[in-house]
Design brief:
Blueprint: E1 2-7, H1 21-32, E2 36-41, H2 42-49, H3 51-65, E3 69-72, H4 81-88, E4 92-96, H5 104-110, E5 116-119, H6 124-130, E6 136-138, E7 157-162, H7 167-178, E8 183-186, H8 197-206, E9 207-212, H9 221-225, H10 228-236, H11 246-253, E10 258-261, E11 277-279, H12 282-293, H13 296-313, H14 316-326
Parallel strand pairs: 1-2, 1-3, 3-4, 4-5, 5-6, 7-8, 7-9, 9-10, 10-11
Helix pairs in contact: 2-3, 3-4
Length: about 350
């Protein structure tokens, strides 16, 4: 298939932060599966030429390329509906919504402008049907298994967390450390800073326990009472619901043990307690860390099971194969594994 991928090549459009999620997982997964993929970096074009010229260039590139499908990953207001309408006249369109569980106004505005759009929410079909918006395709996050993989390294770190700083996450990390648990932390906003992709994958592999911590607002009384800022952050934050994120699949693809916050639907992806572990509250988090640190055999068995499940069911090659079939492309056009 000939695919035009409209996304940012770099993380949040900043080259110094490294390549974007879409570049690693969409562009490379589709290209490695044998598709002819052209990446249109709207953020870079916007910086160079301005919004109007960037939108016009996207239309012109679609006319020249005549792709089988245009796949969009939007950020904020870089594109305009008129541009999407022009592209839609030339090819089928698919928009990937990362956070429609909490960016509701954004996704509901843009969804009708595309032939199809995705949601990671398992209840998305019913939700969008009630709104009278057609074209919904359920597509959870997944993983590029060529980039997230097991490494031959020693499990030399007790507990690790890789992710952006968030006040709730900082509070949880401090509670773990006060309980005598050593935790290595990296990511945007933390003193250690951002890890490049290779270093992040190595960190996952080196950790005995990889934490997956929520960045939604918390109404835990202990968190809110620690300072007036806690209450203010909870009231202001638009992230008031949990969701399944890419990190759930990335850690497991490395055959690394994961202890995660619970979110509705996670049990449909992995067998909780058998393939990965979840904590229910801050006290349970501390207890679970201690419990699993004391049982290496259990951790390794669960990590292996999660890794095997990830390769069977959760790669982006499989995700796109199913979505393209649902869009009406024939198995010959779709990715390998589409008939599974």
């Amino acid at each position: 298939m000939r695919i035009l991928l409209i996304c940012m090549q770099y993380d949040y459009g900043v080259a110094e932060r490294g390549h974007s999620y879409e570049y690693y997982n969409f562009y490379q997964s589709l290209r490695d599966a044998g598709h002819e993929v052209t990446l249109f970096d709207y953020m870079e074009e916007l910086k160079r030429h301005g919004k109007e010229a960037m939108n016009r260039k996207l239309q012109e590139q679609t006319e020249d390329l005549r792709p089988d499908v245009a796949v969009f990953s939007l950020y904020t207001d870089q594109l305009v509906p008129e541009t999407v309408a022009a592209v839609r006249k030339l090819t089928k369109t698919l928009c990937f919504f990362h956070d429609d569980t909490w960016r509701k106004d954004f996704s509901r505005f843009w969804a009708p402008h595309f032939d199809h759009f995705t949601s990671s929410d398992f209840e998305s079909g019913r939700k969008y049907a009630r709104l009278g918006i057609p074209g919904i395709l359920h597509m959870p996050f997944g993983v590029n298994e060529a980039l997230y993989r097991p490494l031959e390294v020693e499990r030399s770190i007790d507990v690790a967390f890789v992710g952006a700083w968030h006040p709730v996450r900082e509070w949880l990390i401090k509670r773990l450390r006060r309980a005598g648990i050593q935790v290595e932390v990296a990511g945007s906003g933390w003193p250690a800073g951002i890890l490049d992709h290779a270093a992040m994958v190595k960190k996952f592999n080196m950790a005995r326990i990889n934490l997956n911590l929520s960045n939604s607002s918390s109404w835990d009384a202990r968190y809110l009472l620690r300072s007036p800022r806690g209450v203010l952050n909870a009231l202001r934050s638009p992230k008031n619901v949990e969701q399944i994120k890419a990190r759930h699949f990335e850690i497991n693809a490395c055959r690394a043990f994961q202890l995660s916050y619970y979110v509705d639907g996670l049990e449909r992806c992995y067998a909780l307690g058998e393939e990965m572990a979840v904590y229910l509250d801050p006290d349970d988090l501390i207890e679970k860390v201690r419990y699993y640190l004391d049982d290496e055999a259990l951790r390794e068995d669960m990590a292996t099971r999660a890794w095997q499940r990830t390769l069977r069911e959760h790669t982006y090659a499989q995700r796109f194969a199913k979505v393209f079939l649902a869009m009406g492309f024939t198995p010959g056009q779709a990715l390998p594994g589409a008939a599974e």
